[in-house]
């Protein structure tokens, strides 16, 4: 370690990889991973979200998994929580939609209305 | 490399390792690989989480699900349910009995009462990082304080910061750390040393071990900072050989620090150099006393030397030396990073920051806790510790281990700090806190601690060697029902002499447990001496076996009594002749109706 800058570089890189142990999370993204969610591709959706978060260099986002949400035909389901805001439920996620949600909802704080459960029930 | 979606943290502290957490780690790794999850799920071995009794402990992040008492077969379930399907395995979660009923399942680690009420500074990385991976320490601000000190601060600035923080020694005496460093800094000399006291002799304490096991780099960083501040280039860590995991992790950490240029020559490209060495101790209590520790590091017998000279003037190999405790050091990096004002904003007027306590004895949640100085003892025992098991009544709490004293229910509302504990006749010590309930006999407790010090006295000076032995003999007599009233005076006289004329702190504090129990529980001593009874029902020789009205007259006890001292007819109330009874207990264990009690 020759300088503080060098140390800080290591810090930033590793911290992003392990900070999920202590993050409070400005956003919590929850992916339903139960049987039918998995069958519909939830695992790939979750990994895609993580990858996009990584690419966007976002910090302080928790990506958790959860079990069955009760309506199989809506899977894969992704919910986004933010303190002081109502939760947003996205349904029938694909890898493409997942990336879009990260860019729009998490980066620009814009809900992707077209993919939410509300607009699909209409 | 992409991000891992889950981290499985498995406690690798001494407690959990002894309940096979290493096998659990292996099993997790095996299954995660089998399921093809090894690029998604990271399995990490950490240090102690502090709730060792609930071990082996396993935490799955980011959910924070807190699995306790995990068995090897449970690993399959956690992997197939939680990691594969996102279903938290509620049946394996820790139950937080202190939370309201609807929140008792520990789905989120940080919400568990035991942790929520703590303020972790010295323990901040324990149970968070893998202590064997230097990068993880760096990720959580590790070595940043050292970098800052070396590149942005003068040694005098460091001394100033530590002084301003109000940090005092956590090894027992509570001496202001900044002032100690300044003494050593001001002593002229080309060679100086930093010593770390990791002897941890108090039988009830294990915070130093946990820091070494869970966050060893923190100690290295702090010792290097102390070296820079005082002009020392070499550090010794004196650690007991009975702490094999701690020794191993510290060795690994020192190697890694060297590889990364964080120990050795020209650290951070400056002209500061610092190196470290481990010295193993055999685990004698007296070797924790700093002059004995110095002698032991030098290869001599671990016996105390007279002070002065103080280590700051003549320490290891006669050179100016700073000796600090592990926990003291563990506070230093954060004082540098967050500032002395931040540290001094916690605690009381004269005791700043936080302190780690090892809570044990008759308490529901035993374990390692870190709280702000000035926290009320009642809060620690009732809210964090969850009170006394089995609905028993709190009697006293022993702080300061064999050198300390007891604190009674009347004083539970005092804020914990160095000076308050001393004014109550106890002391902070290293942070052992043993809770006693109505079933503990205070004479017996005093005897227990004195027995420990008699064993551990190095024998160099007469008052300690002989005096403590005399006191122990008197206590033995009292607990056997052969005490006399003048024994109390004798104990007090001996105690006074030993305290004033012993060479080192061991002798000077050895009488404290006796003095403090005499101060608060004199009537209990008198009951042993005059009434020949042990009110708590502990001292075997003073108990009498009595048959109560619950007796159905089955005659079983009469048949087993080896001395035939039980009388009674079939279906009639039986009776024990107390003078003939030899207190063997045979009748009591035989009675089907629990009609025989000890009083
Ligand atoms: C009998 C005896 C045992 C001691 N054992 C320890 C010990 O195990 N660990 C420790 O840090 N200090 C122990 N001390 C206190 C040390 O002498 C010394 O004061 C301390 O290590 C200084 O560090 P600090 O200022 O950071 O507390 C002991 C003192 C006495 C008299
Ligand atoms: S007081 Fe006790 S332990 Fe200390 S030097 Fe004297 S005999 Fe040894
Ligand atoms: S304690 Fe032993 S000696 Fe005493 S009454 Fe019971 S059986 Fe007999
Ligand atoms: S064994 Fe119990 S119930 Fe039976 S005679 Fe003895 S005291 Fe009474
Ligand atoms: S298993 Fe599909 S919604 Fe529950
Ligand atoms: S050793 Fe595992 S919690 Fe302490």
CATH domain class of the largest domain in chain B: Alpha Beta
Number of strands of chain A: 4
What is the name of the CATH class of chain A? Alpha Beta
General form of chain A: elongated
Q: How many discrete domains of chain B? A: 5
**Overall residue-averaged pLDDT value of chain B:** 95
Give the chain pair forming the largest contact, with residue counts: A-B, 39 and 38 residues
Give the low-confidence spans of chain B.
none
* Beta-strand percentage range of chain B: 5-15%
Give the CA-CA distance, first to last residue of chain A.
59 Å
CATH architecture of chain A: 3-Layer(aba) Sandwich
Helix proportion of chain B: 25-40%
Shape annotation of chain B? globular
**Major sheet characteristics of chain B:** 5 strands, mixed
Question: Low-confidence runs of chain A (pLDDT<50, min 5 residues)?
Answer: none
Number of helices of chain B: 23
**Rg calculated over all Cα atoms of chain B:** 27 Å
Short description:
The complex is a heterodimer of chains A (122) and B (599). Chain A has 122 residues and is an alpha+beta fold. Chain A is 43% helix and 16% strand.
What does this structure look like?
The complex is a heterodimer of chains A (122) and B (599). In chain A, helix 3 crosses helix 4. Chain A has helices at residues 4-18, 35-39, 42-56, 95-107, 117-121; strands at residues 27-32, 61-66, 78-81, 88-90. Chain A is of the alpha+beta class. Chain A has a 4-stranded mixed β-sheet, with helices on one face. Chain A has one domain: 3-Layer(aba) Sandwich (Glutaredoxin). In chain A, a hairpin with a 6-residue loop joins strand 3 and strand 4 (88-90). Helices cover 43% and strands 16% of the residues of chain A. Chain B folds into 5 domains: 6-112, Glutaredoxin; 134-344, 3-Layer(aba) Sandwich (Rossmann fold), CATH 3.40.50; 354-437, Ubiquitin-like (UB roll), CATH 3.10.20; 442-529, NADH-ubiquinone oxidoreductase 51kDa subunit, iron-sulphur binding domain (de novo design (two linked rop proteins), Up-down Bundle), CATH 1.20.1440; 544-598, Alpha-Beta Plaits (2-Layer Sandwich). Chain B contains 23 helices and 17 strands. Chain B has helices at residues 14-18, 21-34, 72-85, 113-116, 134-139, 144-152, 155-165, 177-186, 207-214, 216-230, 244-259, 290-297, 326-338, 340-344, 377-384, 418-423, 442-456, 462-479, 486-501, 505-509, 512-529, 556-560, 586-590, and strands spanning 6-11, 41-46, 58-61, 65-67, 193-198, 234-240, 275-281, 321-325, 354-361, 367-372, 394-399, 405-408, 432-437, 545-547, 566-567, 575-576, 596-598. The A-B interface holds A 1-4, 7-8, 10-11, 14-23, 25, 31-35, 37-38, 46-47, 50-51, 53-54, 62-68 and B 1-7, 9, 40, 42, 61-63, 84-88, 128-129, 135-136, 138-144, 147-148, 151, 260-262, 267-269. The structure holds flavin mononucleotide, iron/sulfur cluster (3 copies) and FE2/S2 (inorganic) cluster (2 copies).
């Amino acid at each position: 370690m020759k300088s503080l800058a060098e140390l800080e570089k290591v810090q930033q890189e590793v911290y992003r990889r392990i900070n999920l142990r202590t993050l409070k999370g400005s956003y919590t993204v929850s992916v339903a991973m139960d049987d039918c969610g998995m069958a519909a591709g939830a695992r790939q959706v979750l990994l895609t979200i993580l990858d996009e978060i990584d690419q966007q260099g976002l910090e302080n986002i928790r990506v958790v998994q959860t079990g069955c949400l009760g309506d199989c035909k809506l899977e894969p389901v992704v919910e986004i929580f933010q303190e002081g805001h109502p939760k947003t439920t996205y349904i029938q996620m694909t890898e493409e939609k997942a990336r879009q949600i990260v860019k729009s909802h998490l980066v620009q704080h814009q809900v992707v209305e077209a993919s939410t459960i509300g607009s699909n029930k209409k | 490399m992409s991000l891992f979606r889950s981290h499985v943290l498995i406690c690798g502290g001494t407690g959990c390792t002894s309940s096979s957490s290493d096998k659990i780690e292996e099993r997790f790794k095996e299954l995660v690989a089998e399921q093809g999850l090894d690029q998604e799920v990271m399995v990490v071995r950490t240090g102690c989480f502090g709730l060792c009794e609930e071990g082996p402990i396993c935490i799955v992040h980011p959910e924070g699900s807190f699995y306790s008492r995990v068995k090897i077969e449970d690993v399959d379930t956690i992997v197939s349910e939680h990691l594969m399907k996102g279903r938290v395995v509620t049946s394996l979660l820790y139950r937080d009995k202190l939370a309201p009923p609807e929140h008792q399942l520990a789905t989120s680690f940080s919400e568990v009462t035991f942790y929520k009420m703590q303020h972790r500074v010295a323990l901040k990385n324990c149970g968070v990082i893998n202590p064997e991976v230097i990068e993880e320490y760096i990720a959580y601000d590790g070595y940043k304080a050292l970098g800052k000190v070396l590149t942005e601060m003068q040694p005098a600035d460091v001394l100033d910061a530590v002084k301003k923080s109000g940090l005092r020694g956590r090894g027992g005496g509570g001496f202001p750390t900044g002032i100690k460093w300044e003494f050593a800094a001001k002593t002229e000399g080309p060679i100086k040393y930093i010593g770390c006291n990791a002897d941890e002799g108090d039988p009830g304490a294990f915070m130093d071990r946990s820091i070494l096991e869970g966050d060893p780099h923190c100690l290295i960083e702090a010792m290097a900072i102390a070296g820079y501040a005082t002009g020392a280039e070499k550090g010794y860590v004196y650690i007991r050989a009975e702490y094999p995991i701690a020794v191993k992790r510290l060795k690994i950490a020192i190697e890694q620090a060297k590889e990364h240029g964080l120990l050795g020559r020209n650290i951070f490209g400056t002209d500061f150099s610092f190196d470290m060495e481990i010295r193993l101790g055999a685990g004698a209590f007296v070797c924790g006393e700093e002059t004995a520790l110095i002698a032991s590091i030098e290869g001599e017998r671990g016996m105390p030397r007279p002070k002065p000279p103080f280590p700051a003037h003549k320490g290891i190999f006669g050179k100016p030396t700073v000796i600090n405790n592990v926990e003291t050091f563990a506070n230093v990096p954060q004082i540098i990073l967050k500032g002395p004002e931040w540290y001094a904003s916690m605690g009381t007027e004269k005791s700043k920051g936080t302190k780690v306590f090892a809570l044990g004895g008759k308490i529901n949640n035993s374990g390692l806790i870190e709280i702000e100085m000035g926290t009320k003892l009642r809060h620690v025992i009732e809210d964090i510790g969850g009170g006394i098991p089995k609905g028993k009544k709190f009697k006293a709490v022993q702080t300061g281990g064999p050198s300390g004293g007891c604190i009674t229910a009347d004083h539970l509302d005092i804020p914990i700090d160095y000076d308050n504990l001393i004014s109550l006749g106890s002391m902070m010590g290293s942070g052992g806190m043993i809770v006693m309930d109505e079933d503990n006999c205070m004479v017996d407790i005093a005897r227990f601690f004195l027995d420990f010090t008699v064993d551990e006295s190095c024998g160099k000076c007469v008052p300690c060697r002989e005096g403590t032995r005399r006191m122990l003999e008197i206590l033995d007599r009292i607990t056997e029902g052969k005490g006399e009233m003048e024994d109390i005076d004798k104990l007090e006289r001996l105690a006074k002499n030993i305290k004033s004329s012993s060479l080192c702190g061991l002798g000077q504090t050895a009488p404290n447990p006796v003095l403090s129990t005499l101060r608060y529980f004199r009537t209990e001593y008198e009951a042993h001496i005059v009434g020949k009874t042990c009110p708590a029902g502990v001292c075997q020789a003073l108990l009498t076996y009595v048959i109560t009205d619950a007796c159905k007259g089955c005659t079983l006890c009469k048949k087993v009594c080896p001395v035939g001292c039980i009388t009674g007819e079939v279906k009639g109330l039986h009776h024990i002749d107390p003078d003939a009874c030899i207190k063997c207990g045979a009748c009591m264990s035989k009675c089907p109706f629990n009609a025989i009690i000890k009083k």
